[in-house]
């Protein structure tokens, strides 16, 4: 007898928990996912922080089709001139408004952008120490995992990279840990997996100053915040600082896999000697992903998508008032709804999924619900989503 897709999933695909969501999605459009029984779900997490311009955004789909008709993979990254790649690099550089960030190295994912950036920082500074934040997540490969600010995630995989120190996100006192030995600090503007924790502009200005004084490179991880999630194209732009290296992935591809690290040509150039081919990737900057990413940037700009992110964020904050909620915090459409404990959050999530809305929690903050919908969500859809959330909270509260 032929196995169902669910049985194939159980039997043949590797699992990283004993409780995968296991929804069988057959189509997706805008903010909606449809499962194999025809049930529709509002996607409030964008899987995760990826589908900023909506699922199957028509402009992105068209760009992908056009590119597939021209060519797909041709050669390892950096050898051939491929128009979607060079046009995307130009658009990315322009999006930063920063003379510091004038070259792009393309990767396939976020964690690879982190790895490339760490190697670049070591190569450029000739130092080996890195600093990251407690409760930070920067990826699952071994360099990025070494940066993770949570022992539980790392312990079974040691030895990892030595010379890693941690600071508290947003804590001025901890900046003393940055010294002339530090190659780089890797930090998010809004700490995503810590549960959407913000730091002040004065913290980031002091951090920038300290990095400049010590020659430590400031690596800003915008893998979750990038491409408009917080309301500015890059979250660092609201902090009035400039990174030395900028990391992006997730939302960058409009649903296709791609990542990048960006830096100044004077830094980036060190990957081309001692040794030559200092960082290599076969598929990094895949032309189809680059075409999708370029269409994503164009869509964000032409639809003025970022203009209403703050209004939409405030609408969530206004509507989400309930005795179960202890705090709603966030920047733009990167929001955490904090409750008493994981059991409460999990019960609300399960009820939401039953009622056709997808949300989840955070790696290092399991007592908060994640709200990170596609930025194209309309104000009416936000009201619909909040109704489902509040009804689920009522149900959990009553029981
Ligand atoms: N950095 C941050 C801030 C992230 O949120 C993530 C993914 N959650 C990563 C890096 C790793 O990205 P990827 O899963 O594409 O490797």
Which class best fits the helix and strand makeup? alpha/beta
Number of continuous helical runs = 13
The radius of gyration over CA amounts to: 21 Å
Q: Largest beta sheet, briefly?
A: 7 strands, mixed
CATH topology of the largest domain: Aspartate Aminotransferase, domain 2
Name the hetero compounds present: 4'-deoxy-4'-aminopyridoxal-5'-phosphate
Distance between the termini: 42 Å
Please give the order of strands in the largest beta sheet: 4-12-11-10-7-5-6
Strand content: 15-25%
Shape: globular
Question: Got a strand count?
Answer: 16
CATH architectural arrangement of the largest domain: 3-Layer(aba) Sandwich
User: What is the mean pLDDT?
Assistant: 97
Please describe what this structure looks like:
There is one protein chain. This protein is α/β, with parallel strands linked by helices. The chain folds into 2 domains: 5-53 and 305-398, Alpha-Beta Complex (Aspartate Aminotransferase, domain 1), CATH 3.90.1150; 58-302, Aspartate Aminotransferase, domain 2 (3-Layer(aba) Sandwich), CATH 3.40.640. It is 36% helix and 17% strand. The chain has 13 helices and 16 strands. The chain has helices spanning 5-12, 46-49, 58-70, 83-96, 110-125, 142-147, 151-154, 201-214, 265-268, 287-302, 309-319, 342-354, 379-398; strands at 25-29, 32-35, 40-43, 103-107, 129-133, 164-167, 182-187, 190-191, 197-198, 217-221, 245-248, 259-263, 327-331, 334-338, 357-358, 368-371. A 7-stranded mixed β-sheet has the order 4-12-11-10-7-5-6, with helices on both faces. A 4-stranded mixed β-sheet has the order 1-2-3-15. Strands 13-14-16 form a 3-stranded antiparallel β-sheet. The longest helix is centred in the C-terminal third of the chain and has 20 residues, at 379-398. The structure holds 4'-deoxy-4'-aminopyridoxal-5'-phosphate.
